[in-house]
Protein 1
Amino acid sequence: MERLSIFPALAKSKLFSLFVCFVLSAFVCVSLNAAAYAKSDHWTGCRGDDLDARIAGCTEVIARGSRETKRNQLTAYINRGGAYRAKGDFDRALADFDKALQLDPKSALALLERASIYHAKGEFDRAIADYDRAIAARPKSAAAFSGRGETYRAKNDLDRAIADYDKALQLDKTLATAHGGRARAYRGKGDLDKALADFNEAVKLDPKSALTRVDRGSIYQAEGDLDQAIADYDEAIALDPKYANAFLNRANAYRTKHDLERTKQDLETALRLDPQLASAKDALDEINRLIAKSPAPRATEAPTVPPASAASPMLLVLLLLIALIGLFALGWVLILFAENIIRPTNQLVEPKGRSVKEDRE
């Protein structure tokens, strides 16, 4: 009996062990899934468009250290650096790109990003050095040539800039930034026709760029086509209602058309958007002086008939004399008419050279 009683105990212990194993397995699965979800959640933020979420997500990925692959760490540093750059925090952005380049000194993406920071800070030589390294690492990178062209243009080295834009467009004809950059370089050299052609291409490729619209408008304005220039400025303002320079440029076009009121309105709007816009301040002061000097518009008056008493005495005498002459002429005409019509019927008119007596014979 004792032996028989052992089997139920063993059976119960086996069931209990299976239950424990099942619970432990489920716990492990849930833990792994939670870890995987947490990891994917970090990467969702790190690769997202929201800048703060990207910084937070990439920071968590970076904090994982060696648990992440070298490639993942590189991506996290580049993405976080890009977010810092977009927020204007250039120092933190540079630190992240430096870290990325420590992980991979030939990372063209990290080099391009760091070059753009140096350009924004005005350190053009360091920017060009990074662009050179990026081109060496990726010789067919249109973005690298276009970026270096932008930096050469910022240094006013327009020929080198145009050469880089040319190369970028050979590699990618649809690169709107290269068309826009080359157009600005041509404008700097005074070649407005080539500049306008490139701006037209840039507008086709990127029709939502307010900057390109304003730049093309400036070319039309320089060529004297004020209506087309104003149309481009209108479009730029529609795309970006807070673009102060678009209002400033349109004000200059209205000023050239002598439309002082619209000029004033646009200058005031430009200053509301950017109170530090010195050129707008000076222009507005001048326009206010011109408006103050301009005569006030006269009110529309109904036409009046001058009084009869305003006629001069000499004119009255002349009119009376003309009337008398007319009456005298009319009387003379009536007398002649009466002599020829009212005449005796028996009166014969003698023909010239013959007598009445000869007729009777």
Protein 2
Amino acid sequence: MTLATRHAICSIVTCLLFVSPVPAADTPQPAWVRVTEKAEWTARDSQGELVYKNRLWLFGGWMNSFEAPPRDVWSSADGKKWTQVTAKAPWIHSDLSMSLTFKNRMWFMGGWYNGRLPGHSASNQVWSSTDGKVWTRATKAAGWTPRLAAALVQFKGRMWMLGGTENYYFGNKKSLKNDVWSSPDGKTWTRATDNAGWTPRAYHQAAVLGDRMFVFGGGNYVPEYEAFNDVWSSTDGVHWTRVTEKTPWHPRLWFTSVVYRNRMWVLGGWSNNPSKNWGDAWYSKDGKTWTEYKTSTTWKARHEHSAYVLGGKLWIAGGHARPLSSEVWSLELPDGWPASR
């Protein structure tokens, strides 16, 4: 081997030692799947929703502002085939109501009635059911004032009502609430605080993860639009700590949220100036650090849709996608996700 050849080989080896390995391309994340383009129920937004007895449930909602809201109840085991349980439930305030599953019953409370028409009103009635057809009224008037678009969660063996507004189209800032109430049975409600520290708001969301409740987003629709993207948390409903003043997702109203794969999710929503629907999905394990979930196939931007977790999947249904939608979509992430995110 000549001296020149030896130098050439050494140079090649030296270069190889200092070249960083090219990382493998990221594995594509699971995409959203459209389960049905048109469910059996009429397209709508602002409906109540929950998971009960391994089925997705949908209650009432909004179709336009100049008629009473629907009072129908639907359920589905697979998101594709839906069964109407009743066409006319006894509750009437089904626009922007609050609902959840608690102590093996479905609960429905608050909400708005009659849109912009005369005789409109908010409610502080509380109802429950074990089959979606027969409903029992736990109270005609809960301790909290009549309201809609509040957040409702289950935490430490109680139902918790957080904020909301007492008037939809005809209120003002004084209509907005930042009080917190809880109940072990839907009938007796105890006020934890009249002022939680976060700005009074409606159209927000709350979630329970770990040992605390989180409140995030929301604001006011009319007459003075205002939207937030802050996050607050509490371990007792009385004392609240601001986790972050601004998340990376845009301030918004009318979004949905669930806890899925041990992460809080923010899905879609709406903001004004200019009027814009959102079609993004974000997740966080602590309320402070948020990551956007991006896929090549996803649902059209929308607001006031339903979100569920059932059968290891995250689901969305309906909402205002300009026009109103009766689509159902699902996303399935594997156990242990996110492994490296």
